[in-house]
Amino acid sequence: MDELEAVLSRVRERVLPEPEERERLREAAATLTERTREAIADLPVDADVVQVGSTARGTWVAGDRDIDLFVRFDADLDRAELEEYGLAVGHAVLPEGHEEYAEHPYVKGSYEGFDVDLVPCHDVETAAELVSAVDRTPFHDAYLSARLDDGLAGDVVLAKAFLKGIGAYGSDLRTEGFSGYLTELLVLELGGFVPLVESARSWHPPVEFDPEGHAERTFEDPLVVVDPTDPTRNVAAVLSAANLARFQHYARELLAAPSEALFEPAEPEPLDSKEVRAHLDRRGTTPVAVVFDAPEVVDDQLWPQLRRSLDGIVGGLNDHGFDVLRARAMTNATGAAGAVGTSNAGTSDGGATADRNLSGGAIRAALYAELEVTERPAVERHEGPPVAVRKHAASFYESYVDDVDPDTYGPFIDENRYVVEREREFATVREYLESDAASDVALGAQVEPAFADRDVLVGEAVATLAPAFGRPLREFYEPRP
């Protein structure tokens, strides 16, 4: 434990904001809050402003530059007026800001080097009466601010740094990790960062925490943390089983062999084409990639659709005998490992970002898979029912007995059932991926139109993806827990 405490002490020095950083943020937030109050005073309706999120609670990692201000309007104000007045305040406070959209529009900008979100919401009595998801955030802030002392706040920062270091932080639907609010609730519930990792190493999902003991429904997620401000909601609903397992793995590693490296995010260097070909030579598999323009939607819409499309293609490949060893969806967008950005309004730390990093051009997406089999025989076996099952067996037999196709063998009896060997629909993986059948699988609704104009790469041709997809390719070929 002495070794662990020594590591955590050094990490604290790096990740806890210095007093000067805290004061700069406090001054910036105070100025922006006053500007917001002045802008509210010009409106024909009443409202107030509250700072929310990690920087309001002192739980931000050094270097994070986010200030989140929520303008609360009367709960009876209709949506159109809330949007109108909210944007008016946002543009008055951030004249060089721009509009973005989460559940409703808001203004995003910068001030004194800080990223600022100015978000309108309804001032509801309880979280159970919320009109939109962002209305919940001030309740989160009030709950945590009343319970987190300086020691626990510091442990929250350690937990966030740890989760960032292992790649499991972020409630966007690409990452499917731990949100800031979830992290803070877990530290609060377990009593600190070390108790949290000590507990996590022995979890047997499903694991449930109910801070206020008032769950009103049953949840089926691997980790359940009932929202203390809204008992109908699981704060950990977005967290994937893989990221929960990742957290457990590295919790055990930290306790067994404490290391500062676990708190330091590792940005993978892109693979180049030569390195991709070296992996292909060593593995002896055949890679395939279906590449197309990603639909222009926010990432919390894009990534579920890419995953759904990947599942559909993998299912189709397996159904046609091209056995998939491993697969993943990728984009060529900037950011960690092909991430396109996030959309987390009213979820993690009270932020409301919903932007896409277009990097000056259209984003390309790839459904990438490694196959154990890429070519099948010209015929395939098709079994009918046992001969003893008279009605169904007769139907099967009669459907083939008069078949004049010279490429069909049978029907004949093998063991106790009718069998035919018929021409295979697709003998090569390229034939399948370029066919209409590949579009007939369950694709994301907005992926489907783009999929029609796809490029199919097979074998070493995938090495040409390296300049654009180098980071996700390194993650694919050099995976870690």
Compile the SSE list and pairings.
Layout: H1 2-15, H2 19-41, E1 47-52, H3 54-57, E2 66-74, H4 79-93, E3 98-101, E4 105-111, E5 114-123, H5 137-145, H6 150-165, H7 180-190, H8 193-200, E6 207-209, E7 223-225, H9 241-256, H10 273-283, E8 286-293, H11 299-319, E9 324-331, E10 364-371, E11 379-386, H12 390-401, E12 409-414, E13 417-423, H13 429-433, H14 447-451, E14 455-458, H15 466-477
Parallel strand pairs: 2-5, 6-7
Antiparallel strand pairs: 1-2, 3-4, 4-5, 8-10, 8-14, 9-10, 11-13, 12-13
Name the helicity range: 25-40%
Q: Number of helical segments? A: 15
CATH fold node name of the largest domain = Alpha-Beta Plaits
Query: What's the order of the H and E elements?
Result: HHEHEHEEEHHHHEEHHEHEEEHEEHHEH
Gap from first CA to last CA: 24 Å
Q: Mean pLDDT across all residues, rounded?
A: 91
User: What is the beta-strand fraction?
Assistant: 15-25%
Q: Report the CATH architecture of the largest domain.
A: 2-Layer Sandwich
The tally of beta strands, per DSSP, is 14
CATH class label of the largest domain: Alpha Beta
Biggest β-sheet strands, sense, barrel: 5 strands, mixed
Low-confidence stretches: 336-360
Q: For this structure, what is the CATH homologous superfamily of the largest domain?
A: Poly(A) polymerase predicted RNA binding domain
